[in-house]
Design brief:
Number of helices: 7
Order of helices and strands: HHEEEHEHEHHH
Shape: elongated
Number of strands: 5
Strand content: 15-25%
Oligomer: single chain
Largest sheet: 5 strands, mixed
Strand order of the largest sheet: 3-2-1-4-5
Helix content: 55-70%
């Protein structure tokens, strides 16, 4: 197999030399066509790789007694997007279904902290949820992110985004936008 490999490498080198000679002699129009073809080829390869290998996702969670806001990172882990608002009783089931289709590598959970830095009353509910999350996803790490002021920031984001007042009154919107703010806060610190 070694001589066969050497023959293949020599074929590639000969083809590269032929191409470089063609490039020097080719017209600018032919060069542009070649560059366009090569760019499209590289784009096709990238799309092919991405579809075969799902990119990592980070899930942001704003947990509440009644509802849970869920956000997700883009595949590159740069931007957070509000994903959904789910009833608290169904959140683990929802996350399991999501994780079947996406490669979830981290959960970022908003943790309620008072102004003095101590956990608030709502932290007890989040602690119970964290135990359920760890049991359902033992292989996925969890990061706790301070969620102070996320509801205020979510309302501000909805106003700045031009959301109608009646839509801003829906608590489901606030929950998922809060989850996106929690997740974005985490990702911004990691840059």
């Amino acid at each position: 197999t070694m001589p066969h490999t050497i023959v293949r490498i020599s074929d590639v080198l000969v083809n590269l030399m032929d191409f470089s000679c063609w490039w020097v002699l080719a017209s600018s129009s032919d060069r542009r066509k070649c560059v366009t073809f090569f760019s499209l080829f590289v784009l096709f390869i990238i799309i092919f790789i991405v579809t075969l290998h799902p990119m990592d996702r980070i899930i942001g969670i704003d947990y509440g007694r009644k509802r849970v806001g869920v956000a997700v990172s883009d595949p590159l882990g740069i931007f957070a997007s509000a994903l959904d608002t789910v009833q608290s009783a169904k959140i683990i089931e929802y996350l399991k279904k999501y994780a079947e289709n996406e490669n979830v590598v981290l959960f970022v959970v908003g943790y309620p902290i008072n102004m003095n830095g101590q956990p608030s009353e709502a932290a007890k509910d989040v602690d119970i949820f964290l135990r359920h999350l760890a049991k359902a996803f033992p292989e996925i790490p969890v990061h706790l992110e301070d969620e102070r002021f996320t509801s205020v920031l979510a309302h501000r984001a909805m106003i700045d985004g031009g959301m109608k007042k009646q839509d801003r009154m829906k608590k489901e919107s606030v929950d998922k936008i809060s989850a996106a703010i929690i997740l974005q806060s985490y990702m911004d610190k990691k840059k």
